[in-house]
Amino acid sequence: MKLLRTNKGFTLIELLVVIGIIALLASIALPAFQGVQVKAQQTKALNNAKQIGFACRTFATDNNGQFPSYAETSGSFNTAQQVTNSNDAFNCLIPQYLQTIQCFYQAGSYETPGAKAPPDPDFTQEGGSAAQSALPVGSKLNHWAYVTGMSDTSNSTYPLITDDPATIAQSQVTWAAAQTAKGGVWKGKQTLVVHVDDSASTDQLNPTFEDMSGPTGIDLFDTSGQKGWMTGSNGSGNNVVPAE
Fold first, then answer.
1. Cβ-count burial 103-136 (b if 16+ within 10 Å, e if not)
2. Could you tell me if 10 and 18 are in contact, meaning their C-beta atoms sit under 8 angstroms apart?
3. Domain ranges for the chain
4. Measured between alpha carbons, how far is residue 241 from residues 5, 90, 146, 147, 163 in Å?
5. For the chain, which has fewer Cβ within 10 Å, the N-terminal or C-terminal residue?
6. How far, in Å, are 16, 18, 47, 222 from residue 150 at the CA level?
7. For 77, phi and psi rounded to 5 degrees?
């Protein structure tokens, strides 16, 4: 007796069902995967920012408890001229308190559009020229904004370093929803903060991207909410200064 063998494959309907199931599983898994990627990027970014914050605290031990806030000229600080951008403040840390500039880079940031973190400059040059040019204004090497006028005795919950915002006003700091825009690296949903005590947090933003709720549940950049702690304007007191 001869057996009849048949090689039956999937029908078109069965193939469509399988493809539909795969597509459904992919649609569920992709957002979760992207969320894990963002968290990993934020963890790395916070570690970089904490490295800068620690350098600020070390700087303060040698400068009467004051974090870098004033322009440096010929190796000394001009206390009548507060910095107006974070690059100039951070340059005070290099290279004595911070031996790398790679911690200022953030992948995907409008402020640091390079494909990867830049190499460290040659810190062996004499006369401080390497330090002065490590983060020059307009270099697109620095992602982080900074709050001037702080010291190691300032309220530990106050922000010291944060993702560079889209806009800065004395009582309002905003971030952008578009990732390719200035201040939009986290799409206006969150911002990373290193506080005066070098603690770090990932703060949620409200739908208008204007609120950064701190440990006490208030907007840390709202001068009215903080009873005017950010008192300075036009180069004095506590000011949020942008990356340049």
1. bbbbeebbbbeeeebbeebeeeeeebebbbebbe
2. yes
3. 37-241
4. 78, 11, 5, 6, 11
5. N
6. 63, 60, 21, 17
7. -100, 135
Which residues share a beta bridge with 174? 167
200-235 pLDDT, tens per residue?
Answer: 988 888 655 455 555 555 566 665 544 444 544 444
Name the token pair of 143: 């992602």
Question: Rounded to whole angstroms, what are the CA distances from 201 to 44, 45, 87, 129, 191?
Answer: 13, 11, 22, 34, 8
With a cut of 80, say whether residue 39 has pLDDT above it.
Answer: yes
> Which CA distances in Å does 211 have to 83, 171, 189, 203?
25, 11, 10, 9
In sequence order, which residues have a C-beta less than 8 Å from that of residue 50 and are 6 or more positions away?
A: 194, 198, 200
Is residue 199 within 8 A of residue 136, CB to CB? The reply is: no
Per DSSP, what are the bridge partners of residue 128?
none
Decide: 193 and 200 in contact? Cβ < 8 Å: yes
Which among 28-37, 119-128, 176-185 has the top mean pLDDT?
176-185
Residues 6+ away with beta carbon under 8 Å from 196: 150, 152, 154, 155, 156, 157, 158, 159, 160
Do 143 and 104 meet the contact criterion of CB atoms below 8 Å apart?
Answer: yes
Number of Cβ atoms within 10 Å of the Cβ of 39: 11
Contact 159, 198 (CB under 8 A): no
Longest dimension (CA), the chain: 106
Q: What is the pLDDT of residues 158-180, one digit of tens each?
A: 889 999 999 887 667 888 889 89
